[in-house]
Amino acid sequence: MLKKLIRNDSSVTEFILLGLTQQPELQLPFFFIFLGIYGVTVMGNMGLIILIGLNPHLHTPMYYFLFNLSFIDLCYSSVIIPRMLMGFVKENVVPYAECMTQLCFFSFFVIDECCILTSMAYDRYVAICKPLLYKAIMSPQVCLMLMAGTYAMGFVGAMAHTGCMLRLTFCDGNIIDHYMCDIPPLLRLSCTSTNINELVVFIVVGVNVMVPGLTISISYTLILSNIFHIRSTEGRSKAFSTCSSHIITVSVFFGSSAFMYLKPSPAGSLDQDKVSTVFYTIVGPVMNPFIYSLRNKDVKIALSKTLKRRVFS
């Protein structure tokens, strides 16, 4: 269906991705570094997905969202890193249709990440501030509706970004100074007006960054206020430990994505754009499994039980 929607009215039939760096001496080292990162990302997120699926005591709202977060991280890092790795070993030529497809899936999964992080913040707010009502508020039906809304927002945003990009004409310029087909570098290549695209970027990204960011900020303000009223030191420590993992993930993702997309125009430092993109496309997905598992007693217990079952079965 997506291929039918992609009609190229430009004279450009393919793009050339310049990659993360153009320094020859760094190409091979970067290839192995990012290959290792991708391997860890796949193993970490797949491991968390399998672990949550195999252990019934992890079938709670918190781990339901974490399961979906790992799935989203796995998918959108797979949309980006394999193509990025190709650029380290040869000229990275991308057909027009493939470039638009990458942009579409990337937009879909990034917006999904924004929404699911918001759902996770709401889940922690209910767990800490309204513990007696937790099961009633965070029922399976509510969790399912939140995830359905997450994927629906991703779909709408991806279609908006991709549809607006397809209306642009790319005349002769086909060299993208980036390691993926992202919105700002593509807008720089257009020989037609990008005003509508910039407006759509500001609206869609604003809605999917500012609204979730505000929701998360309010949730954690209420959470911290509640934590400071907990008399038990152990209770405060447990509550802080539960929330700290999510705060780290939110800070990395929303900080770098807001810097990248909420600038008034696509002009600016290309190197800054690349570094910013690396943080939320590569660093986030590789860090999340460790952030949510190394500090989490439930995950450690589940991993220990799973390994024992495999060893002694």
Radius of gyration (CA) equals: 21 Å
What's the total helix number?
11
Share in helix: over 70%
- Strand line-up of the largest beta sheet: 2-1-3
Shape field: globular
Taking all residues together, what is the mean pLDDT?
Answer: 84
Q: Encode the helix/strand succession as letters.
A: HEHHEHHHEHHHHH
Number of strands: 3
Low-confidence stretches: none
Largest pleated sheet: 3 strands, mixed
Strand content: under 5%
Distance between the termini: 46 Å
Quaternary status: single chain
What structural class results from the helix and strand content?
A: mainly alpha
Task: Summarize this entry quickly.
This protein is mostly helical.
Sum up the structure in keywords.
single chain; 313 residues; mainly alpha; three-stranded mixed beta sheet; 3 strands
